[in-house]
Each structure stands twice: as C-alpha cells, then as structure tokens.
Design goal:
The complex is a heterodimer of chains A (77) and B (222). Chain A is an alpha+beta fold. Chain A has one domain: 2-Layer Sandwich (Mth169, Chain: A), CATH 3.30.1280. Chain A has 2 helices and 3 strands, in the order E-H-E-H-E. Chain A has a 3-stranded antiparallel beta sheet, covered by helices on one side. Chain A is elongated. The termini of chain A are close together. Chain B has 222 residues and is α/β, with parallel strands linked by helices. Chain B has one domain: Class I glutamine amidotransferase (GATase) domain (Rossmann fold). In chain B, strand 3, helix 2 and strand 4 form a beta-alpha-beta unit. Classes of the chains: A alpha+beta (77), B alpha/beta (222). At the A-B interface, helix 1 of A face loops of B.
C-alpha cells in the first residue's frame, strides 16, 4: 500500500471567488499583507502498489479534478 | 412522444420537469439513475437539484451514474437531451457540453425571475421559439457561472451555439452573459435557469418556459 496525495487547484485564469472571500476575511482577524488566497482541494488516497502513475493521473483527471477549470498535482508519499 | 426525466439522489425538479412535459402534450417517463435503461424514450430531460449533495463538484458524481452511459450513447445518435441547472452541470461534467459551471462571482445563491434572450432556434429544444425572443423564467443556483477557455467561447459564439443569454444584468458572472449552450448538432442543450418552473402563470412568473418542451415534440429522431 502507498499513500498518494492529489492536490487540485483552480486554473490561474479562473476567477477564484472563494479565495477572494477568504482574502477579504483575513482583514477581519487583523492580518494585513496577504495579497491573494487561492482555494483548492487536497485528496489522500491509499492505493495498492499495483496502481501505476498513469492510473493515478487518470483518477485525478477524470474524477478528482475537472480539467476545464482545474489543474492537479499527484504526489506519492 | 415519450420524454424521460432522470431522478438522481438529490434531484429536486424531476416532478416539475415531468409536469412541463405533460403540459407540452408529451408523455413523461421516470428514469432512475442506477438503471442502464432509457425505456425507449424519444428524448431525455436531466433536471435540476443537488445530485449527490454536490459532492466533489456539482454534477461530477451524477455524470458517472449508470444511466448517463445510456444518455451519452443516445446523444451521440442524435437523441434530444436537455439539462436544466444541475442537469446542465451534469451534462458538462459528462462531456456532452463544453465548459463548466463555477461558483457565482458574487458568492451568493441567486434566486430570482430572470429575463433571457433565446439566441438560437436551431436546436431541438428551441425550434418552436422565435429568434431573439425574450422569456422570463426562474433562476436558482449558486454555481451557475459559465466558464470555458477563450477558444471554446469563440467557437460557441461563432457556431451559434449560445442558445440563451442573460438580460437585465448578469446574475453570476457567466462569460459573455451565457445562460445556456448547445452541442454542435443542436440536439443537446443545457441552461442554468428553469423553464420547467415557468409553464403556467398560476405557479410561475410566466408560461414562457413551455416553448422548450413543445419545441422537442417536432425534433424526435425518426
């Protein structure tokens, strides 16, 4: 078994309105100097050793992320 | 004509969609997400709601439901398919329509009667409308902001596949005020607003939405 992490983020050109809302809220807890927050998703998968990298990218690209609006990074831990 | 209406876990508007089908003079047929069976229908409506609680992304899980395999095959053969709201999101996730629906730019869930312009009558679901016709139908969504890359939007505009456009202010930040689009062959249409809620002035802001369901009567395959 192996632990695999998939991080999914909105593409740079996609307006991340949730990240913007978080940025604005930082001012309310008295934090200045954070110019941008972008919000994504973090998946942790426990996979059999038989699962190869191509399959992991298929998992990420066909289900965990929507390639129209999101990028992803697959990392084996 | 028999028109299927799919119910997923979390679907809300299947009953109103079936009612709209009946008002238009067709026979609604209930279809179940877990079946590999379209029951021989002539067209399919994928209704609105919150399938699978919008888990992962709105429409993502539903797009992989067993019945969607059948819908994709039937759409490739030219069967008319209409996706409304969550149904539009499902059709985009299934790859039947380009682009994606992202969270509203104002972050708020928007619920209001929305004016739209029907930009194309060259689809299975708008053939009975007049080009440029303005309609008033409810809009109720939190993730209705149509997004796609610039090439895709240019292609949709150039090929006349922007079917519905918001009038009187863009409610969600959708690119080019796009409220609904079609497939290249005009058989698959998706839109965020709800024509099935506007079929009778007794219960909706107008009966303007009925034209989508009467349009498809003349658009069945063979």
């Amino acid at each position: 078994m192996a632990r695999v992490v998939v991080d999914v983020m909105p593409k740079p050109e996609i307006l991340d309105v949730q990240g913007q809302a978080v940025t604005r809220a930082l001012g309310r807890i008295g934090v200045a100097g954070v110019t941008e927050v972008r919000q994504g998703k973090h998946f942790e998968l426990d996979v059999d050793d038989a699962i190869d990298d191509a399959t992991l990218h298929r998992i990420a690209g066909e289900l965990l992320a929507n390639p129209v609006i999101e990028d992803w990074v697959v990392t084996r831990k | 004509m028999r028109i299927g209406v799919i119910t997923f876990p979390g679907t809300l508007d299947d009953v109103d969609a079936a009612r709209a089908v009946r008002y238009a003079g067709a026979e609604p047929v209930s279809l179940w997400h877990a079946d590999h069976d379209l029951a021989g229908v002539d067209a399919v409506v994928v209704p609105g709601g919150f399938s699978y609680g919008d888990y992962l992304r709105a429409g993502a899980i539903a797009s992989l439901a067993p019945i969607m395999t059948e819908v994709k095959d039937a759409a490739r053969r030219g069967m008319p398919v209409l996706g409304i709201c969550n149904g539009f999101q499902i059709l985009c996730e299934a790859g039947l329509l380009p682009g994606a629906l992202a969270r509203n730019s104002g972050l708020h869930f928007v619920c209001r009667d929305q004016r739209l312009r029907i930009e194309s009558t060259a689809t299975a679901w708008t053939g009975a409308a007049t080009a440029g016709q303005e309609i008033l139908v409810p809009l109720k969504s939190g993730e209705g902001r149509f997004v796609a890359d610039a090439d895709t939007v240019a292609r949709l505009e150039g090929e006349g596949r922007v079917v519905f456009r918001y009038l009187g202010g863009n409610p969600n930040g959708a690119l080019a005020d796009i409220a609904g689009i079609s497939s290249a062959d005009g058989r698959v249409v998706g839109l965020m607003p709800h024509p099935e809620h506007a079929i009778d002035p007794l219960t909706g802001p107008s009966d303007d939405g009925l034209v989508l369901f009467t349009s498809v009567l003349g658009a069945a395959v063979g």
